[in-house]
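Lab meeting prep.
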Amino acid sequence: MGNRHKGNSGFGDDHDQADAARGTDAGGIEQPDASAATDAGGSNADLAALLAAKDKEIAELKDKYLRTLADSENARKRIRQQSEESVRIQRENILRDLLPVVDNLERAISAARGGTDIKTVVQGVEMVLAALHDFLRNQGVTPVSAVGEVFDPLRHEAADHVSSDQHQPNTVVSEFHRGYLLGDRILRPARVSVAKDGSARRSGGENDASDIENN
């Protein structure tokens, strides 16, 4: 009987040791693991710190984006203002150069109304025309010579086709208005009359004459 009690007592000690290893009390209720709770708290703190760092990074990137957008908009406004100012200055210069031409034309009209002889009036108008040509030349505008040239659809606009014994077919005979170049580009094509092939007309005339003789 004494030996059996000792054996039971040893079994009870082993059971208590196993419960202690599992973190349970004598009644079999598991106790919370302190180390696991500490690890979970540390993980949450690290996650919160990481989220805070990301939020700060996003805020900085957003601020840089907004600053870049504002700088870009300011640059566009500045370029537009400079362009408008440049156009205004160029327009003023052109108009200022035209004013002397207007002055000369007004003088010519006053002279004609005052009974000045026609020769003086013509000279005044010629001076105005010369001033206009100088103005156009200063702006890079030059006239295009067309009469006697072979018709070029890029430089000439055919307004009429005429028969001419003095010009080859497809040759410019006369101008209705002169053409002009701006640099190397056509500002306005010359409006011209072009010589047409007269062989058909002459052939038709000879046939008509022969028919009259035969009759």
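Slide two material, second protein:
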Amino acid sequence: MKQETDKGLKHLTQLLEDLEQISLDDIALIPEEKQHLMVESIESLQDQLKEVMSENRLLH
């Protein structure tokens, strides 16, 4: 079970790293009326992932 948890957290860590690579240029490709919502959603997910990683002491 621990191995499955570690693998899942590894995927979440990778997701966080990928989200942090999204640039304003990437966001600009999204229709303008959805950009603000997309940015808020990405930032919220990043914050939640950081909290989970911090709780599991996996955040560098």
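Talking points for slide two:
The chain is about 80% helix and 0% strand.
The longest helix spans residues 32-55.
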